[in-house]
Hints:
Blueprint: E1 5-15, E2 19-20, E3 23-24, H1 25-35, E4 41-45, E5 48-50, E6 57-58, E7 69-76, H2 78-91, E8 96-104, E9 124-136, E10 140-141, E11 144-145, H3 146-156, E12 162-166, E13 169-171, E14 177-179, E15 190-197, H4 199-212, E16 217-227
Antiparallel strand pairs: 1-7, 1-8, 2-3, 4-7, 5-6, 5-12, 8-16, 9-15, 9-16, 10-11, 12-15, 13-14
Helix pairs in contact: 3-4
Amino acid sequence: MLQKGPAKKVTIYVNEDTQYHMASLYEAILTFLLHKGIGGATATRAMAGFGAHQSMRTTKIELLSEHLPVRIEFVESAARVEEVLPTLYDMVADGLIEVQDTIVVKQASTERKKVEPRREHMVKESKAKLMRVFMGEADRWHGEPLYEAILKRLRMMDIAGGTVYRGILGYGAKGHTHKQSFLHLSRDLPVMIFVVDTEEKIEQAAEAVEEMIGDGLIVLSDEYMIRLVHNQPVAEAPDAKLPTG
Length: 245
């Protein structure tokens, strides 16, 4: 049972159309976590992003909408995370797995099943920086959406990857509430950009974004990155696999 106190948060980035044994990879990951007794996991679909392959993905291009990044996140004890990570390494052939320290403030009540011993696995680990940029969907930069302009700037700076998420409810420094409903489709929903890279590159990226953003927020934090680097081609979708966070 997950206890209150120190824990690990695991975030996995894959492409929506990536397959694993004739099924969607993100669904296979959720099924694996469920069978291993992980208390809970959530998959969210991004609205735009680019990754190591430097291909822009956006919901505005119908043919590419199925290539959008999917973010899977769960929280568990450090020991449980060590137990499931080796299999996750094998399942994610092209993508990114991020592990960071967190604090559980409310105890989970689900019982855990016995798990198999951890298998040895070689991974590439390094310190990194996470940049979060918060803005409104209606914000513009030289006639185009600000979040798209920021992604283009990051790609030109050779940033490893960035992902855009649209919120469903939020408010900012001005105190205005932005939400989406069936009767009113807000054109200024909150938008968040997540970017992970080395400390040097993130600091450069933060300076560039600061010049572009008006009303908004830029947050930097230290991260510990576990990145999967596979040289063999991916059979399901050679050009597509994704991002960051």
